[in-house]
Each structure stands twice: as structure tokens, then as C-alpha cells.
Amino acid sequence: MITFEEAFRIITSNLPVKETERIHFQLSAGRVLAEDIHSDLNMPPFDKAAVDGYACRRADLHQPMQLMEVIAAGSQPKKEILPGSCSKIMTGAMMPKNADCVVMVEHSIIDAEGKVIILDKNTKNNIAYLGEDIREGEKVLAEGSLIKAQHIAVLASAGAINPLVYKKVITTIMSTGDELVEPDHNPVAGKIRNSNGSQLVEQLRTTGAEVIYGGIVPDDAEITRQMISNALKNSDVVILSGGISMGDFDYIPGILKELRFQILFQSLAVQPGKPTVFARSENKFILGLPGNPVSSFNIFELLGKPFLYRLMGHQQKDLNLRLPLAENYSRKGSGRLGFVPALLTNGMVVPIHYHGSAHINALVNADILFSVPLGISELHAGELVDVRFI
Questions:
Q1: What percent of the chain lies above the pLDDT cut of 70?
Q2: Looking at 202-333, which runs of residues are DSSP E strands?
Q3: Cα 248 from Cα 257, distance rounded (Å)
Q4: pLDDT band for position 179 (50/70/90)?
């Protein structure tokens, strides 16, 4: 049995990185950049008005000014600003020559002669200057970035319409056990619906991996061996839930050895999630998760996601906080690092009481997991705990 920290090091170290491909930037959300992105122009590309108002010289704010023209966004000024003159300008429009400020419309009036009188003589400049956001050639996104909606806007602004990204990790998910039936079946006595499979498919999709659902693996060693072998032909990673503990029908560790996989760990000092297997054969990987759904969910969030992101060239950065407990918490054992589902309420951690690692409903309202250190069985209200968002 190894520590969580050691398991994390093993599962995220010395990994191959996927090949690359170019795709249209509008299809790149959830993918990982395989190159730095540099802007091909200045942003803004010209001095532009930051407000609707009047572009003028600050030296003329004390006197009525002759209105020269109206400058709409997307058009170019036709006239320069001369002493005693101004131009009405819309937000985002190009500044006319010689203007050094924009007075907001609401800080001005028009007199009987049609001249503009400024009411606010201490106006801000209200100008977005050429290149103040981004300079031409500046790196705007780094290789290894996980592309999100805000990154799409940056790619568009930089003209990077076909960015180089890492290819998706192809992952097959299978659930093991004769007790399982698919969710569209009505389970008879002794059977339960397969919740892990659907849960893991959705968790995987959030990583941007390509997901293949391989179905239910029966408690038969030969069929199990064949299903795993077939899945490996089309996948980089095979993720299994169940079948990895010490029961009479838990064949997986033995089968992995027969398939010439090196088992790098198969027992974690983590609660819940002790029976977890990670194995490798060259550039193929197998992650065996516990069969109970809370354990499966937790271990995938804590170890599976960082592993898959690393394979796709991205180093996941979890937001970990230390926040106070809202109430006392206790557990029966203290021999493993515990991860407990909880609510985050007014900056306080409220533990969700659940009946064990099979109680998947305990996660329905959970915002976070908080950790209970090895050797600790009780925590008191007000104590700071380490928190991970889920």
C-alpha cells in the first residue's frame, strides 16, 4: 500500500505525450495547445475611444468647440482635430489626429450655436491606446494550455485559426462484475444497475479525451482477458471499475501480468479508494478503479484526470484551499488519507454524511472534497482543512 502522494507521482511521471494535429480554432475547446501562440498584430490595433463622447484636445476643454464630424466604430476619421474643435465619437472608433482625450457624452451639452460645451474639465483620457493590451509578436497563449472559451477569443484575436494541438487520448471504459446490468434493465434479485460506467464516461468527457464505452465485463477470467486485449487494440488507456480487490472473482491483476503489463501500484493508503491499480506496457496504460461509485468517482478526480491531462500535454492545476470546518467530523479508522464529500457554505466546509463508498447520492450536492490526514480520526469545528473542488 502506497501513499496518495507517491501514487500521484507515479501516475503523472515519465509519460509519453500524444502526437499533434492542426484543427480549426472553433473546434479546439477542451484540447491542449502544442505550440505557443503569438499575436500577429497589436491590440488594440489603433488608438480608440473607450466611451461614447467627444474627441478633442485637453487644451480646449475650457471653451465651446466646433463639432467637426461623427466617427462611428469601424470607420476612419475624415478630419483632424484643430484648436477649438471636436468630433463626436462612438466607443471603439479610431481616434482622430491631434485628439488627446474623449469627454463622455453625459459630461457635455450643446449650446444655442451648436457648439459643444464641456462640463467636466478634469475628464479622464478615456482612450484605449494602440498595443496597450497586446503587442505584435507577444506570446498570448503558452504550449500546454487547456483551451477554454476565453482562449478561443484570444486565438481569434491573434489570427491563430488553425492551432497545433495534441491529439486526444483514446480511452475505453469497462465495468466488471456479474452483478451488473445496464441502466435500461430492471435488475432482478442479486443484480444492480451499472452506475460507474455512465459516471466515468461523463468524467472522461470533461478531460477532452475520446471515450469508448466497452460495456460490462463478466466474472470470467478468459472473457475478461479477451475484452481487455480487444480494448487495448483501439485505445491508449483502458479504465476498469471493480474486479481489482481480493475476492474470488477479482481476476484483473493476474490478467494484467499475463498481458505483460507492469503493475506500478495496486493499493492506496486512501479512503475511499484503497483497491486502485495502475499498470503500463510501453505506451499503453490500464487504470483499475474501485467498484464502489464514490471510490471510483474520487480516485478518477484525484488521479485519473491529472494522468489523462499529462498524456495530452497539460499539467492540471487544482485550486486547493484551506477552509474552516463548520462542524465536528469523525471517522472510524485513521490508517489512510481520507477524502470526504462536503458542501461549501459561506466559506465553511460542511461534511456530507454518507453510508460508505457505495452511497453515490452523497455526491449529488457536493461541491468539494476535504482531506483528513493519515493518523487523524477526529477534526473539530473551526479547524482548517485542505479542500479540492469537484
A1: 97
A2: 210-217, 237-241, 262-265, 270-271, 277-281, 284-289, 320-324, 329-330
A3: 17
A4: confident
- Pairing between β-strand 378-379 and β-strand 284-289 as defined by DSSP bridges: unpaired
Percent with pLDDT over 90 in the chain: 78
What the block records as the C-alpha cell of 290 is 474501485
What's the residue count for the chain? 390
**In this structure, are residues 17 and 311 in contact, taking their beta carbons and an 8 Å threshold?**
yes
Task: Give the integer Cα–Cα distance in Å for 190 and 216.
Answer: 16
Q: Which residue has the cell 466604430?
A: 73
CB 84 within 8 A of CB 60: yes
Helices then strands, counting H and E runs in the chain, come out as 7, 28
- Which residues, 6 or more positions from 191, have their beta carbon under 8 angstroms from its beta carbon? 179, 180, 181, 185
pLDDT for residue 307 is more than 90? yes
pLDDT over 70 at 108, yes or no? yes
DSSP 165: E
Q: What are phi and psi of 60, to 5 degrees?
A: -105, 5
**What's the mean pLDDT when you consider all of the chain?**
92
Task: Tell me the domains of the chain and their CATH numbers.
Answer: 4-16+168-311 (3.40.980.10), 20-43+132-166 (3.90.105.10), 48-128 (2.170.190.11), 320-389 (2.40.340.10)
Angle of CA points 386, 1, 178, to nearest 5°: 100
For 233-279, what is each residue's pLDDT tens digit? 999 999 999 876 555 446 788 889 999 999 999 999 999 888 999 99
